[in-house]
Amino acid sequence: MKLYLVPTPIGNLEDITLRALRILREEVDVILAEDTRTSGNLLKHYDISKPMVAFHLNNEHVVVERIAQRIANGERMALVTDAGTPAISDPGFMLVRECIRIGVPVECLPGATAFVPALVNSGLAADHFIFEGFLPHKKGRQTKIRQIVENEYTTILYESPFRLVKTLEQLAEAAGHDRRVSVARELTKIYEENVRGTLAEVIEYFSAKEVKGEIVIVFEGKNSNQNHNQNHNQNHNQNHNQNKNQNKNPELNEMISNGLQLLGVPYRWGGRTVFGIDCSGFVQLCAKSIGIKLPRDASQQVKCGNDVYFLMEAQPGDLAFFENEEHHIVHVGIIIEGEKILHASGKVRIDHIDQTGIFNEELGKHTHFLAAIKRLGVRG
Protein backbone atom coordinates (compact mmCIF):
# COMPACT_ATOMS: atom_id res chain seq x y z
CA MET A 1 0.00 0.00 0.00
CA LYS A 2 1.83 3.07 -1.25
CA LEU A 3 1.73 5.86 -3.82
CA TYR A 4 5.04 6.61 -5.54
CA LEU A 5 5.53 9.90 -7.39
CA VAL A 6 8.08 9.11 -10.10
CA PRO A 7 9.71 11.88 -12.16
CA THR A 8 10.36 11.07 -15.82
CA PRO A 9 12.83 12.68 -18.26
CA ILE A 10 11.91 16.06 -19.71
CA GLY A 11 13.76 15.20 -22.89
CA ASN A 12 16.93 13.16 -22.56
CA LEU A 13 16.11 9.56 -21.68
CA GLU A 14 19.37 9.18 -19.77
CA ASP A 15 18.00 11.50 -17.09
CA ILE A 16 15.76 8.88 -15.48
CA THR A 17 17.20 7.49 -12.25
CA LEU A 18 18.05 3.87 -11.49
CA ARG A 19 15.70 4.04 -8.52
CA ALA A 20 12.83 5.25 -10.70
CA LEU A 21 13.37 2.33 -13.08
CA ARG A 22 13.42 -0.13 -10.17
CA ILE A 23 10.21 1.29 -8.69
CA LEU A 24 8.40 1.15 -12.03
CA ARG A 25 9.69 -2.32 -12.86
CA GLU A 26 9.54 -4.09 -9.50
CA GLU A 27 7.71 -2.16 -6.78
CA VAL A 28 4.31 -1.21 -8.20
CA ASP A 29 1.24 -3.02 -9.50
CA VAL A 30 -0.20 -0.16 -11.59
CA ILE A 31 1.21 2.96 -13.24
CA LEU A 32 -0.97 6.07 -13.36
CA ALA A 33 -0.09 8.03 -16.49
CA GLU A 34 -1.00 11.50 -17.73
CA ASP A 35 -0.90 10.13 -21.29
CA THR A 36 -0.75 6.35 -21.60
CA ARG A 37 0.68 6.54 -25.12
CA THR A 38 3.57 8.81 -24.15
CA SER A 39 4.32 6.87 -20.98
CA GLY A 40 3.88 3.62 -22.91
CA ASN A 41 6.73 4.62 -25.20
CA LEU A 42 8.93 5.39 -22.20
CA LEU A 43 8.14 2.05 -20.55
CA LYS A 44 8.70 0.21 -23.81
CA HIS A 45 12.10 1.86 -24.18
CA TYR A 46 13.13 0.48 -20.77
CA ASP A 47 11.40 -2.88 -21.29
CA ILE A 48 8.91 -2.30 -18.47
CA SER A 49 5.51 -3.98 -18.75
CA LYS A 50 2.90 -2.85 -16.21
CA PRO A 51 -0.83 -2.06 -16.40
CA MET A 52 -1.48 1.65 -16.94
CA VAL A 53 -4.45 3.81 -15.94
CA ALA A 54 -5.10 7.26 -17.41
CA PHE A 55 -4.79 10.02 -14.81
CA HIS A 56 -4.82 13.56 -16.16
CA LEU A 57 -6.16 17.04 -15.45
CA ASN A 58 -9.47 16.28 -17.15
CA ASN A 59 -10.32 13.28 -14.99
CA GLU A 60 -8.26 13.81 -11.82
CA HIS A 61 -11.10 15.27 -9.77
CA VAL A 62 -13.43 12.42 -10.82
CA VAL A 63 -11.20 9.40 -10.15
CA VAL A 64 -8.99 10.62 -7.29
CA GLU A 65 -11.05 9.14 -4.45
CA ARG A 66 -11.46 5.79 -6.19
CA ILE A 67 -7.75 5.49 -6.94
CA ALA A 68 -6.75 6.52 -3.43
CA GLN A 69 -9.10 3.87 -2.04
CA ARG A 70 -7.58 1.21 -4.28
CA ILE A 71 -4.16 2.05 -2.88
CA ALA A 72 -5.58 1.99 0.66
CA ASN A 73 -6.90 -1.51 -0.08
CA GLY A 74 -3.38 -2.73 -0.78
CA GLU A 75 -2.38 -1.83 -4.33
CA ARG A 76 0.94 -0.14 -5.00
CA MET A 77 0.81 2.58 -7.63
CA ALA A 78 3.23 4.95 -9.31
CA LEU A 79 2.16 8.28 -10.77
CA VAL A 80 4.08 9.58 -13.78
CA THR A 81 3.46 12.52 -16.09
CA ASP A 82 4.49 13.07 -19.70
CA ALA A 83 7.70 14.74 -18.53
CA GLY A 84 9.07 15.94 -15.22
CA THR A 85 7.85 15.62 -11.65
CA PRO A 86 4.16 14.91 -10.93
CA ALA A 87 2.13 17.79 -9.45
CA ILE A 88 4.51 20.47 -10.81
CA SER A 89 2.22 22.11 -13.38
CA ASP A 90 0.89 18.58 -13.90
CA PRO A 91 -1.69 16.28 -12.27
CA GLY A 92 -0.91 14.89 -8.84
CA PHE A 93 -1.74 17.37 -6.10
CA MET A 94 -5.31 16.17 -5.56
CA LEU A 95 -4.25 12.53 -5.36
CA VAL A 96 -1.43 13.25 -2.92
CA ARG A 97 -3.78 15.28 -0.74
CA GLU A 98 -6.40 12.52 -0.72
CA CYS A 99 -3.86 9.79 0.05
CA ILE A 100 -2.51 11.79 2.98
CA ARG A 101 -6.07 12.40 4.21
CA ILE A 102 -6.91 8.69 4.37
CA GLY A 103 -3.51 7.58 5.69
CA VAL A 104 -1.94 6.15 2.52
CA PRO A 105 1.89 6.42 2.47
CA VAL A 106 3.24 8.73 -0.24
CA GLU A 107 6.83 8.68 -1.48
CA CYS A 108 8.19 11.20 -3.98
CA LEU A 109 11.39 10.32 -5.81
CA PRO A 110 13.82 13.12 -6.71
CA GLY A 111 14.30 13.67 -10.40
CA ALA A 112 13.78 15.74 -13.50
CA THR A 113 11.89 19.01 -13.58
CA ALA A 114 12.29 21.75 -16.15
CA PHE A 115 12.45 24.89 -14.00
CA VAL A 116 15.55 23.95 -11.96
CA PRO A 117 18.05 23.65 -14.85
CA ALA A 118 16.45 26.69 -16.51
CA LEU A 119 17.00 28.74 -13.34
CA VAL A 120 20.54 27.56 -12.65
CA ASN A 121 21.55 28.06 -16.28
CA SER A 122 20.01 31.53 -16.52
CA GLY A 123 22.74 33.43 -14.70
CA LEU A 124 20.05 35.18 -12.64
CA ALA A 125 19.84 35.07 -8.86
CA ALA A 126 18.92 31.58 -7.66
CA ASP A 127 19.16 32.05 -3.88
CA HIS A 128 15.55 33.24 -3.73
CA PHE A 129 13.01 32.60 -6.47
CA ILE A 130 9.29 32.18 -7.13
CA PHE A 131 7.85 29.49 -9.40
CA GLU A 132 4.59 30.62 -11.00
CA GLY A 133 4.07 27.91 -13.61
CA PHE A 134 1.71 28.95 -16.41
CA LEU A 135 0.18 32.43 -16.31
CA PRO A 136 -3.62 32.76 -16.57
CA HIS A 137 -4.66 33.12 -20.21
CA LYS A 138 -7.23 35.85 -19.60
CA LYS A 139 -8.78 36.59 -16.21
CA GLY A 140 -6.16 37.77 -13.72
CA ARG A 141 -3.29 37.74 -16.22
CA GLN A 142 -2.46 41.46 -16.07
CA THR A 143 -2.73 41.49 -12.29
CA LYS A 144 -0.32 38.58 -12.05
CA ILE A 145 2.15 40.26 -14.44
CA ARG A 146 2.12 43.44 -12.34
CA GLN A 147 2.85 41.36 -9.24
CA ILE A 148 5.73 39.60 -10.97
CA VAL A 149 7.49 42.75 -12.18
CA GLU A 150 7.32 44.28 -8.69
CA ASN A 151 8.78 41.21 -6.99
CA GLU A 152 12.41 41.45 -5.89
CA TYR A 153 13.01 37.73 -6.44
CA THR A 154 13.65 35.84 -9.68
CA THR A 155 10.40 34.49 -11.14
CA ILE A 156 10.07 31.31 -13.22
CA LEU A 157 7.26 30.82 -15.73
CA TYR A 158 6.22 28.06 -18.09
CA GLU A 159 4.85 29.23 -21.42
CA SER A 160 3.55 27.96 -24.73
CA PRO A 161 5.75 28.70 -27.77
CA PHE A 162 2.75 30.37 -29.39
CA ARG A 163 2.43 32.88 -26.52
CA LEU A 164 6.12 33.40 -25.73
CA VAL A 165 6.64 36.72 -27.54
CA LYS A 166 3.31 38.08 -26.28
CA THR A 167 4.25 37.25 -22.68
CA LEU A 168 7.70 38.83 -23.02
CA GLU A 169 6.12 41.96 -24.51
CA GLN A 170 3.64 42.19 -21.63
CA LEU A 171 6.48 41.83 -19.12
CA ALA A 172 8.44 44.55 -20.95
CA GLU A 173 5.43 46.86 -20.97
CA ALA A 174 5.10 46.50 -17.19
CA ALA A 175 8.80 46.35 -16.20
CA GLY A 176 10.63 48.20 -18.96
CA HIS A 177 12.70 46.75 -21.78
CA ASP A 178 15.98 46.66 -19.80
CA ARG A 179 14.95 43.99 -17.29
CA ARG A 180 16.96 40.81 -17.82
CA VAL A 181 15.41 37.50 -18.79
CA SER A 182 16.50 34.03 -19.83
CA VAL A 183 14.40 31.82 -22.08
CA ALA A 184 15.17 28.09 -22.04
CA ARG A 185 13.73 26.10 -24.92
CA GLU A 186 13.60 22.31 -25.39
CA LEU A 187 15.75 21.61 -22.31
CA THR A 188 17.88 18.44 -22.53
CA LYS A 189 16.69 17.79 -26.09
CA ILE A 190 18.46 17.93 -29.42
CA TYR A 191 17.41 21.52 -30.11
CA GLU A 192 18.06 22.86 -26.60
CA GLU A 193 18.56 26.61 -26.60
CA ASN A 194 19.15 29.19 -23.86
CA VAL A 195 18.72 32.82 -24.85
CA ARG A 196 19.77 35.41 -22.28
CA GLY A 197 19.59 39.20 -22.44
CA THR A 198 17.37 42.17 -21.78
CA LEU A 199 13.68 41.85 -22.56
CA ALA A 200 14.23 44.02 -25.64
CA GLU A 201 17.00 41.75 -26.94
CA VAL A 202 15.18 38.50 -26.29
CA ILE A 203 11.94 39.81 -27.80
CA GLU A 204 13.84 40.83 -30.92
CA TYR A 205 15.46 37.40 -31.15
CA PHE A 206 12.27 35.36 -30.86
CA SER A 207 10.19 37.74 -32.99
CA ALA A 208 12.48 36.95 -35.92
CA LYS A 209 12.02 33.17 -35.80
CA GLU A 210 9.38 30.50 -35.49
CA VAL A 211 9.23 29.37 -31.87
CA LYS A 212 8.69 25.70 -31.08
CA GLY A 213 8.99 23.37 -28.12
CA GLU A 214 8.64 23.60 -24.37
CA ILE A 215 9.51 27.01 -22.91
CA VAL A 216 10.75 28.14 -19.49
CA ILE A 217 11.05 31.89 -18.80
CA VAL A 218 13.36 33.02 -15.98
CA PHE A 219 12.64 36.67 -15.17
CA GLU A 220 14.91 38.95 -13.17
CA GLY A 221 13.63 40.37 -9.89
CA LYS A 222 13.15 44.09 -9.43
CA ASN A 223 16.35 46.05 -8.54
CA SER A 224 18.54 42.93 -8.73
CA ASN A 225 20.42 44.28 -11.75
CA GLN A 226 21.68 47.50 -10.17
CA ASN A 227 25.26 46.21 -9.91
CA HIS A 228 25.11 44.10 -13.03
CA ASN A 229 27.85 44.48 -15.61
CA GLN A 230 26.00 45.39 -18.79
CA ASN A 231 27.84 43.08 -21.12
CA HIS A 232 25.04 42.23 -23.49
CA ASN A 233 27.29 40.24 -25.79
CA GLN A 234 27.49 37.62 -23.06
CA ASN A 235 23.83 37.98 -22.19
CA HIS A 236 22.94 37.21 -25.78
CA ASN A 237 24.85 33.96 -25.50
CA GLN A 238 22.91 31.12 -27.08
CA ASN A 239 23.47 27.42 -26.95
CA HIS A 240 23.58 26.50 -30.63
CA ASN A 241 22.73 22.84 -30.62
CA GLN A 242 20.66 22.98 -33.81
CA ASN A 243 23.17 20.85 -35.70
CA LYS A 244 23.59 18.15 -33.08
CA ASN A 245 21.26 15.81 -34.98
CA GLN A 246 22.70 16.55 -38.39
CA ASN A 247 22.93 13.23 -40.19
CA LYS A 248 26.46 12.44 -41.30
CA ASN A 249 25.26 9.62 -43.57
CA PRO A 250 25.75 10.80 -47.16
CA GLU A 251 23.17 8.35 -48.53
CA LEU A 252 20.36 9.66 -46.34
CA ASN A 253 21.39 13.24 -47.07
CA GLU A 254 21.19 12.36 -50.76
CA MET A 255 17.71 10.88 -50.24
CA ILE A 256 16.54 14.10 -48.59
CA SER A 257 18.12 16.18 -51.37
CA ASN A 258 16.31 14.11 -53.99
CA GLY A 259 13.04 14.56 -52.12
CA LEU A 260 13.49 18.33 -51.94
CA GLN A 261 13.67 18.42 -55.73
CA LEU A 262 10.04 17.26 -55.77
CA LEU A 263 8.74 20.15 -53.66
CA GLY A 264 5.46 21.42 -55.07
CA VAL A 265 4.58 18.26 -57.00
CA PRO A 266 0.79 17.84 -56.61
CA TYR A 267 -0.69 15.06 -54.50
CA ARG A 268 -2.30 12.24 -56.41
CA TRP A 269 -3.53 9.06 -54.74
CA GLY A 270 -1.59 6.12 -56.12
CA GLY A 271 0.82 8.41 -57.99
CA ARG A 272 4.57 7.99 -58.14
CA THR A 273 5.65 10.55 -60.75
CA VAL A 274 6.34 14.29 -61.03
CA PHE A 275 2.80 14.67 -62.38
CA GLY A 276 1.31 13.50 -59.09
CA ILE A 277 2.42 11.50 -56.07
CA ASP A 278 1.03 10.27 -52.77
CA CYS A 279 2.79 10.11 -49.41
CA SER A 280 3.98 6.51 -49.50
CA GLY A 281 4.84 6.74 -53.19
CA PHE A 282 6.95 9.81 -52.44
CA VAL A 283 8.86 8.04 -49.65
CA GLN A 284 9.25 4.91 -51.75
CA LEU A 285 10.65 6.95 -54.66
CA CYS A 286 13.11 8.83 -52.42
CA ALA A 287 14.33 5.60 -50.82
CA LYS A 288 14.68 3.95 -54.23
CA SER A 289 16.94 6.82 -55.36
CA ILE A 290 19.62 5.60 -52.91
CA GLY A 291 19.04 1.90 -53.49
CA ILE A 292 16.60 1.16 -50.64
CA LYS A 293 13.59 -0.92 -51.60
CA LEU A 294 10.42 -0.17 -49.62
CA PRO A 295 6.89 -1.61 -49.90
CA ARG A 296 4.27 0.52 -51.63
CA ASP A 297 1.92 1.41 -48.76
CA ALA A 298 2.67 3.29 -45.52
CA SER A 299 1.04 0.48 -43.53
CA GLN A 300 3.69 -1.86 -44.93
CA GLN A 301 6.58 0.62 -44.83
CA VAL A 302 6.15 1.02 -41.07
CA LYS A 303 7.30 -2.58 -40.67
CA CYS A 304 10.71 -1.73 -42.16
CA GLY A 305 13.76 -0.39 -40.37
CA ASN A 306 14.51 -0.01 -36.66
CA ASP A 307 12.28 1.69 -34.09
CA VAL A 308 13.10 5.20 -32.88
CA TYR A 309 10.99 5.59 -29.78
CA PHE A 310 11.12 9.35 -29.30
CA LEU A 311 11.12 12.28 -31.71
CA MET A 312 14.03 13.82 -29.79
CA GLU A 313 16.15 10.83 -30.90
CA ALA A 314 15.21 11.14 -34.57
CA GLN A 315 17.73 12.05 -37.26
CA PRO A 316 17.29 13.52 -40.74
CA GLY A 317 16.35 10.67 -43.05
CA ASP A 318 14.25 8.80 -40.48
CA LEU A 319 10.70 8.00 -41.57
CA ALA A 320 7.77 9.27 -39.50
CA PHE A 321 4.44 7.44 -39.66
CA PHE A 322 1.04 8.81 -38.71
CA GLU A 323 -2.23 7.19 -37.71
CA ASN A 324 -5.96 7.85 -37.83
CA GLU A 325 -8.48 7.57 -34.99
CA GLU A 326 -8.62 3.80 -35.46
CA HIS A 327 -4.81 3.68 -35.01
CA HIS A 328 -4.26 2.61 -38.62
CA ILE A 329 -1.14 3.94 -40.36
CA VAL A 330 -2.35 6.38 -43.00
CA HIS A 331 0.56 8.74 -43.72
CA VAL A 332 4.35 8.82 -43.91
CA GLY A 333 7.04 11.43 -44.42
CA ILE A 334 10.79 12.00 -44.16
CA ILE A 335 12.19 13.84 -41.14
CA ILE A 336 14.62 16.62 -42.08
CA GLU A 337 16.60 19.17 -40.07
CA GLY A 338 15.05 21.93 -37.99
CA GLU A 339 12.10 19.93 -36.57
CA LYS A 340 10.63 19.65 -40.06
CA ILE A 341 9.13 16.88 -42.15
CA LEU A 342 9.13 16.46 -45.93
CA HIS A 343 5.94 14.79 -47.09
CA ALA A 344 3.16 14.69 -49.70
CA SER A 345 -0.10 16.17 -48.45
CA GLY A 346 -1.96 18.27 -51.00
CA LYS A 347 1.47 18.61 -52.58
CA VAL A 348 5.03 17.73 -51.66
CA ARG A 349 5.74 20.19 -48.87
CA ILE A 350 7.67 20.88 -45.68
CA ASP A 351 5.86 21.24 -42.35
CA HIS A 352 6.77 21.38 -38.67
CA ILE A 353 6.73 18.11 -36.72
CA ASP A 354 6.42 17.78 -32.94
CA GLN A 355 5.53 15.02 -30.50
CA THR A 356 1.86 15.30 -31.44
CA GLY A 357 2.40 15.12 -35.17
CA ILE A 358 2.49 17.41 -38.21
CA PHE A 359 1.52 21.02 -37.57
CA ASN A 360 0.23 22.86 -40.64
CA GLU A 361 0.86 26.57 -40.09
CA GLU A 362 -1.49 27.60 -42.88
CA LEU A 363 -4.38 25.82 -41.16
CA GLY A 364 -3.09 26.54 -37.66
CA LYS A 365 -3.58 22.96 -36.46
CA HIS A 366 -2.17 19.45 -36.42
CA THR A 367 -3.20 17.54 -39.53
CA HIS A 368 -1.52 14.19 -38.86
CA PHE A 369 -0.83 12.41 -35.58
CA LEU A 370 2.50 10.74 -34.93
CA ALA A 371 2.46 6.98 -34.42
CA ALA A 372 5.97 5.68 -35.10
CA ILE A 373 9.45 6.62 -36.29
CA LYS A 374 11.67 4.19 -38.18
CA ARG A 375 15.36 4.36 -39.11
CA LEU A 376 16.35 2.79 -42.40
CA GLY A 377 19.37 0.51 -42.49
CA VAL A 378 21.99 2.07 -44.75
CA ARG A 379 25.75 1.99 -44.82
CA GLY A 380 27.43 4.80 -42.83
Structure characterization notes:
With 380 residues, this protein is α+β, with helices and mostly antiparallel strands. The protein has three domains: 2-108, Tetrapyrrole methylase, N-terminal domain (Cobalt-precorrin-4 Transmethylase, domain 1); 115-235, Tetrapyrrole methylase, C-terminal domain (Methyltransferase, Cobalt-precorrin-4 Transmethylase, Domain 2, 2-Layer Sandwich), CATH 3.30.950; 250-375, Alpha-Beta Complex (endopeptidase fold (from Nostoc punctiforme)), CATH 3.90.1720. Helix content is 29%, strand content 24%. It has helices spanning 18-27, 36-45, 60-72, 93-102, 115-120, 141-150, 164-175, 199-207, 232-235, 250-260, 279-288, 298-301; strands at 2-5, 30-33, 52-54, 76-80, 106-108, 129-134, 154-159, 180-185, 193-198, 215-219, 272-273, 276-277, 306-307, 319-323, 329-336, 340-344, 348-353, 357-360, 365-375. The strands form four sheets. It has a six-stranded antiparallel barrel. A five-stranded parallel sheet has the order 3-2-4-1-5, sandwiched between helices. Strands 6-7-10-8-9 form a five-stranded mixed sheet. A hairpin with a 3-residue loop joins strand 16 (340-344) and strand 17 (348-353). It starts with a strand and ends in a 5-residue tail after the last strand. The model is unreliable at 226-246 (pLDDT under 50).
